[in-house]
Amino acid sequence: MILYTPLAYEEIFPNEEGTESCYVETETGVVMLEKNLEGEWVVGKLISPNPSDYLDPKYEPGTLWNS
């Protein structure tokens, strides 16, 4: 299924109930964090204009976030 919309994925398909998420600003972009079952924050998504950020292992989805 293809959706042609300017809306974010989360606005069309909201998180499961009870799942917490937040956005954190980084040096060059924004990271969406989600709380896992153990109560730890993990990277869900990266939004950055810098292509090299997407190659950085600390922004890889599923990585534990150390603030």
From TrEMBL:
It comes from Geomicrobium sediminis. InterPro entries: YlzJ. The lineage of its organism: Bacteria, Bacillati, Bacillota, Bacilli, Bacillales. This is YlzJ-like protein. It comes from the Bacteria.
